[in-house]
Amino acid sequence: MDTVLAGNKPRIGFVGVGWIGKNRLEAVAKENTAEIAAISDPNPAFVEGALGVTPNADVIGSLDEMASADLEGIVIATPSALHAAQSIEALNKGKAVFCQKPLGRTAKEVNDVVQAAQKQDVLLSVDFSYRFTNGIKALKQVLDSGELGTIYGANLVFHNAYGPDKPWYFDPKLAGGGCVMDLGIHLVDLLVWLLDNPEVNEVSSQLFSKAKLLQDINEQVEDYAVAQLLINSSIAVQMACSWNLPAGVDAVIEVSFYGTNGGVAFKNINGSFYDFTTERFYGTSRQTISTPGDSWGGKAAVNWVEELSQNGNKFNSDAFQYVKSAEILDRIYKRG
Ligand SMILES: NC(=O)c1ccc[n+]([C@@H]2O[C@H](COP(=O)([O-])OP(=O)(O)OC[C@H]3O[C@@H](n4cnc5c(N)ncnc54)[C@H](O)[C@@H]3O)[C@@H](O)[C@H]2O)c1
């Protein structure tokens, strides 16, 4: 594979410049660490919006053309069903890929993408953006230090009281699932990443659609889900996520861990999607260890560009964590 020389700005393209694609395009453009050389989207209004950010980019008709263009990397932010096939096409042409979550709709799809990246020895990253919040970084430091003692409990919550506003999110074939695939995936990714690839012993779940137990995941998407997991034969994890829950605020987001020497909790503030605090708990007292204010949304994309320009276009085996998370999602969906 071509290796990008240290200090060079990699030439990258964006496939899908809708809501999140444009947001990540702006974040990368602001850093000025990559040359945004190409964009592709079938919607002319979105193309125009993207050209407003990066006027010199070539407008390319399809991913196929982009995969063959003179680029080091491709950012994929299309509807979820396209991610796996588009990633594999780009990886097989030697392009580094930064893909929106979910990388695939099933563990098999995700595994196929990671295998392609390993085979081609090219860089693959997924936009698990919450890893890059200051609050989760502070929580990770506490976990890594071992100061919580023996961890036995975790609570993972992501309620989006609005729910998605585009029709494809409600089509199981296009979205791969509902609120678990959209929101729960971030919680599962954090669990796998924070606990360093834990063993998953048990998974039980209940999925609902419009206040009724979901009958067929191939026909409906869930809008309310709860799951209980046993991790490393020693940690009980409770997870809940939803769309359109009457939560009294825009969003409820929480990642907390409890151990024999105390607890640590990352939570959103006043229902915000963007502002988080992390607190360390000691019995009945608490200490704030991270406060809001960081602009974290585009950091995973910026980090991928940095890795590409500093280490070159090489496979990073951390990508196997994406397979592990997808296997947990399969178990929550009771697939197979
Ligand atoms: N990482 C995160 O936190 C996060 C947040 C929001 C959305 N997402 C993910 O990002 C993806 C996109 O979500 P969105 O809300 O931006 O959706 P969106 O509908 O706004 O954007 C999708 C874009 O892809 C374009 N598109 C469709 N087919 C295409 C093709 N073949 N080639 C190129 N472009 C194509 C559409 O025209 C549209 O502009 C979803 O998979 C979603 O799960 C991730």
From TrEMBL:
Q: Which residue range or ranges hold the Gfo/Idh/MocA-like oxidoreductase N-terminal domain?
A: 11-128
Q: Which Pfam families match?
A: GFO_IDH_MocA, GFO_IDH_MocA_C3
UniProt entry tagged with the keyword ATP-binding? no
Q: Which UniProt keywords apply?
A: Oxidoreductase
Keyword field contains Cell division = no
Gene3D superfamilies in UniProt? Dihydrodipicolinate Reductase, domain 2, NAD(P)-binding Rossmann-like Domain
Q: Where is the GFO/IDH/MocA-like oxidoreductase domain?
A: 137-264
UniProt-recorded Gene Ontology molecular function terms: nucleotide binding; oxidoreductase activity
What is the official name of this protein in its record? Gfo/Idh/MocA family oxidoreductase
Organism expressing this protein natively: Mucilaginibacter terrenus
